């Protein structure tokens, strides 16, 4: 594994290895000194073309706990809005000797382009690209599901587990990555959304789809609510925020129909009162805060496996002179 | 002045014959030996194994001048055209300023004439500034020195049904045609690639086939209603082919074009997220490619037009969503038609001559292009070697831009010589540097 661009690129063995590594690294967070020397001397750049404080600080914490040097590069105003181009930014980072670039970008495919260009030699980690993918979110979600639902103290597999993902699948990179990864790990994924918010061609995905949340909720072992932007109603994806909430929101009455062991997830940031009610978000079934904790461990695992496993590091040695 | 004796060229892929080119016309044809004229040089070209076609006519070229001379000029674009075997190109109106007045179309026409590499026939905008709000002065452009007969807002769709109806009606006064860029704007806001399984997977906003087909369906009905002539630019989907086929069966006066890239490339290439493959209309599925090939073979699609769209490097070396739409096409068009249509047995060279010369000239009402290879006809001739092949190298282009989607591909065929009004613009595969206008 040279880069992490798509959850679909991960085999079951690779994904499991990341989750198992994260399991080991999770304990670091419980120590008084939350640091390992693994990536000492390595430089990791957080290249964020889009605001995302929570994802950036999660990657930052992950890199720092592995003792890497972290550079945060906030490049708001990408070439889409006529700022510095992706190419020039990448060349700059390359010249500074980045061993890995964690990239968040509003344009689908930007991490793919970066990884396949001559512009950078380091590992590229997709931290969310447009409406395409967000593979580390899927990994942390899978990790969280596994901890709660899998046998062997949360280290077994997800074979046959029912995961229901609800909301704006069309625009969601979280949904794409989760559908691919959870399928790879053996789970049964159901996407629930109004027909307008399911992509054309979703029939070809390795998932089931439904327009009816009430019909899908009882079999779910985990239900993952996606953020829905109220502005979508202006583009006629749904008539009103209230109607969306009534038909596809998770409130107490729907939550009470879940199986006893089922968990409620949300990648954040939440629109309380829209796709999830406040009392559900704060209920004991909600693992939303735990997802954040697990995010750091999973991102440590990804960085460790991508950067730490390498023996020859042309970048760091050539350019320290 | 030089006369040319072309020996043993296969006329439209048929029997070999000798041609004498003299005073801008084909002076004789057949197994002939031209007697040199007093004081006039006679150059002999051995065309054994080469196919002679009438000079190609492109109904859809972006020359970018005035306004984007960093991407292409009339001169560089018409040099690229000559290398591709073209002797006449129709320059699209989406320049800056827009070619929506007699002044701008005459400027483009004059620049083409001065460059001397092919006859540049400007296309006039349908609406002022391509804004889709009110008609440009179509009559003034028709009566100008540029004699505009084709009008198009290409790049944008004349989406307002009333405006489209009026435009179709109005140009009847001077035998004009509206060349529609069929793209329903609301269905394609922010669209990036063909909508289908792949767009969902890649997270790129979908460009549904229906956005093209709905406009074509509306326009053929409008053309029927008002008894006007409609030309459909770059149709790209199976549904579009079926609508045009239906319209023709009803006797509606519609013609249609397909681009070389829609004959060859599919949306699978978008997996690379390389914006070199970003184009409007987008690359479609393999099934659509099959359908447009069949449509071109059975005459539903009348012509091949390049939609040659030069862009500077920085507009393609960026994120997919930020990149410009369009790809080069003039220098590779004939090779791609050979590969996709001739070498596959779908059509012969006579049909190639129709689809790339005679019919586009007729649609554009260009009287002295697209003529048969016959005695007394204007000497616009391409000599083409179908047995050659070449690997496309982006830097090896006469265009100012490098955005060819065929880099590294081996394509069949090679243009050996192009004659415009009896004078070579290309000889032995190379541009003639000093053309006399």
Description:
The complex is a heterodimer of chains A (321) and B (437). Chain A is an alpha/beta fold and 321 residues long. Chain A has 2 domains: 7-133 and 293-318, Rossmann fold; 135-288, Aspartate/ornithine carbamoyltransferase (Rossmann fold), CATH 3.40.50.1370. Helices cover 38% and strands 14% of the residues of chain A. Chain A has helices at 12-26, 53-65, 86-96, 110-116, 135-149, 151-154, 173-184, 213-216, 241-248, 252-255, 278-281, 288-308, 314-318; strands spanning 43-48, 69-74, 100-105, 123-129, 162-166, 188-192, 208-210, 222-225, 263-265. In chain A, the strands form 2 sheets. Chain A has a 5-stranded parallel beta sheet. The longest helix of chain A is centred in the last third of the chain and has 21 residues, at 288-308. The radius of gyration of chain A is 20 Å and the shape is globular. Chain B has 437 residues and is an alpha/beta fold. Chain B folds into 2 domains: 2-51 and 376-431, Urease, subunit C, domain 1, CATH 2.30.40.10; 55-363, Metal-dependent hydrolases (TIM Barrel, Alpha-Beta Barrel), CATH 3.20.20.140. Chain B has helices at residues 74-83, 102-115, 138-143, 161-170, 197-202, 209-226, 238-249, 260-264, 286-298, 333-342, 349-363; strands at residues 2-11, 16-22, 25-30, 41-46, 51-54, 56-61, 86-91, 119-122, 150-151, 177-180, 193-194, 206-207, 230-232, 254-258, 303-304, 381-391, 410-420, 423-427, 430-431. In chain B, the strands form 4 sheets. In chain B, strands 1, 2, 3, 4, 5, 16, 17, 18 and 19 form a 9-stranded mixed beta sheet that branches. In chain B, strands 9-10-13-14-15 form a 5-stranded parallel beta sheet. In chain B, strands 6-7-8 form a 3-stranded parallel beta sheet. The longest helix of chain B has 18 residues, at 209-226. Chain B starts with a strand and ends in a 6-residue tail after the last strand. The interface between A and B is medium-sized, with 28 and 24 residues.
